[in-house]
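In this supplementary section we document a worked example of the pipeline. Step one takes a protein sequence of length 64 as its only input; no multiple sequence alignment statistics are reported here. Step two produces a three-dimensional model, which step three serialises into structure tokens for compact storage. The input and output of this example are shown verbatim.
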Amino acid sequence: MTTESPRWFTSSYSDNGGQCVEVATNLVASRGVVPVRDSKWADGPVLDVSAAAFAAFLGGVKAV
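The serialised model returned by step three reads:
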């Protein structure tokens, strides 16, 4: 079995001011989660958010 590593990225809307989160959407298909971490603390904790919860979050953000 191979283990896929997260491919981290920040939003294209980020101003690169260092106050961002990074996400790894490449794990949705294989694990059903979107890992999220603090961009300032790459070795810190990672929060695994379900794909459905992340999609709902994005929908709420886009509606604002």
